[in-house]
Amino acid sequence: MRRLIDKLPALFLASSAVCMGLTGCEGEEYADDPRGNFEALWEIVDTRYCFFEEKGIDWEAVGKKYRSRVKPDMSDMALFSLCSEMLSELRDGHVNLVSSFDTYYYRAWWTDYPQDFNLRTLQQYYLGFDYGQTSGISYKMMPDSIGYMYYPSFSSGIGNLNLDYILAILYKSKGLVLDVRNNGGGLLTNVETLVSRFTDTPVSGGYITHKTGPGHDDFSEPFSFTYSPADARRVSWNGTPVVVLTNRSCFSAANDFVAVMKSLPGVAVMGARTGGGGGLPFSSELPNGWAVRLSASPISGPGGEFIEFGVDPTPGCEVTSSDIQLARGTDHILDTALSLLERLAANKEERDLFMRDKEEYFRVYGL
Amino acid sequence: MAAIASLLIPSRISAQDTRTEERVPSRFSIGIGVGETRSLDTYLSPVTYSGTSFGLGVWQELPFSSHPGEWRMCFGGEGRFSNMLNPRGNARKYDADLRIAWGAERMWSIKPVTGSTLWLGAGADGVIEGGCGYLPRNGNNPAAARARIGIDIAGSAEWTMYLKGVPLTVGERLSVPTLGIFFSPQYGESYYEIYLGNRSGLVHTGWWGNTGGVRSHLTVSVRPGKWGVRLGWLCSLQRQNACNLRTRLLTNALTLELVSR
């Protein structure tokens, strides 16, 4: 015991030294130099990205291709350019690299396609610069009692009370055009809020999967999730036909929204295929402080369909609006939706078939 | 070693109080701590953040009424908030941490030098810990929660001597996690998925293979009257390896407490 007592001061100091030593044992895995930052980025994508198989990407080969171009003395801008080039191999609009001087952003998912939409044309020729606006949603009762809502971003929070007002004001509509063209996505909770007003029973929101480890095939079992109808105290849609308008610039949360709405009875999706973005993005960062974002958790549609490459319109509802038409003040997609809803409002037999089986409706009657 | 010991053992010891201490040391303390925290949570970022931490804690030690000379009960809690930056200084991370512990210790008293008393203790703490790291720059994974319920083994040593009649106590309390359960999302699982209802695989059994760490509080206190002051150095490390995710939270802080019997 006496020996132990003699050693006590040393034990105090030793325990303290252990703690101090632990302070320094969590150094960065990669150095903050061009090589280290490149390797960190490559590994983040390698271990976190979720669509290698679906896109047929050999990430090892991609790394080999770009690694040889990393130079110890290259500038930050040159490194950023190289890293951006490597990331473009993913062909993914959810992938970003953010530095203090630039942001990499993959644009080809929409730039390679017609726009099919012009906001000025809509506001001037259809809304007459006279419309209501709340919670980021523009709305108006159109001629012939067709309701119209335009929601350009799911980043705009939807207040339940605001939505109550909009749906109450449009409650006497004979049909609704719900326009999400150019909606680049945002919060998935807004998808749930909006969908809940168009169903009176729980509906499938889709399936979500996550990575369980760093391997390319390390995925969990798909988890099915549902969206519940809005609380009975809330104002829900009146049950008349709904047409959701889409273009190639509908992405991410908007893509998910369209996939769910397409599965609902009495709702048709009209326009062009959406831009995709079916992976919930995660963020990370490099030793030099650049932020990285990439698709990490795949979400599929209500039927389990793969939606990373977009959601097609309801069969028979593929419609385009050319730039020339739009420049002349004609939105062909919106015109087609309005005439369809007017037709359904005027013809009970057609409306009943549309509400019961919209795909059959378009097979029989077309647009 | 003798030189180190000579620094800690006063050469002139008061003869004021040499009677045997009958009861285990007991006290109430409340204080603050300021120091540095280093945080790595690969769910949020592979980069280690570091910055300043501020803490507040209360701690109570009481002898068991049935064995006042052998056993004492300890309980208390502490909260800590850390404000950190990444190595490049262009992103900020916040961390909040709360720890509540209740434990019991068997104490032994020794008289190494006339006029001083050394108490050695060994026991265990039941611990509830919770915390959250928050990285605002992240989009869908901005926060990572931590939660643990477990048993920590604990040891303590207290050496009280008297300088001109004033008790001076040098103490150390060390605790190390052993078994427990803790929370961790899966490797790439979003909190949105948990919100949607997928709650499987979130609770894990903790043992030295996947949770670890150490909590050491080295203190020196002077108590001229009923109340005294205690200065200390707190070193706390929490480690967790689960679901291919690594979490490290290391804090070194200077503490200043008011203590009373």
Overall pLDDT of chain A: 94
From the coordinates shown, what is the CATH architecture of the largest domain in chain A? Answer: Alpha-Beta Complex
Count of DSSP strands of chain B: 11
- The CATH architecture assignment of chain B turns out to be Beta Barrel
Assembly state of the chains shown: heterodimer
Q: Could you say what the CATH topology of the largest domain in chain A is called?
A: 2-enoyl-CoA Hydratase, Chain A, domain 1
**Whole-number radius of gyration of chain A?**
26 Å
N-end to C-end Cα span of chain A: 95 Å
Let me know the largest β-sheet of chain B. 10 strands, antiparallel, barrel
How many alpha or pi helices of chain A?
14
Fold-level CATH name of chain B:
Lipocalin
Query: For the record, what is the CATH homologous superfamily label of the largest domain in chain A?
Result: 2-enoyl-CoA Hydratase, Chain A, domain 1
Secondary structure: helix percent of chain A: 25-40%
Give the helix/strand class of chain B.
mainly beta
Order of helices and strands of chain B: HEEEEEEEHEEEE
Approximate strand percentage of chain A: 15-25%
Q: What's the arrangement of strands in the largest beta sheet of chain B?
A: 1-2-3-4-5-6-7-9-10-11
For this structure, what is the CATH homologous superfamily of chain B?
OPCA outer membrane adhesin/invasin
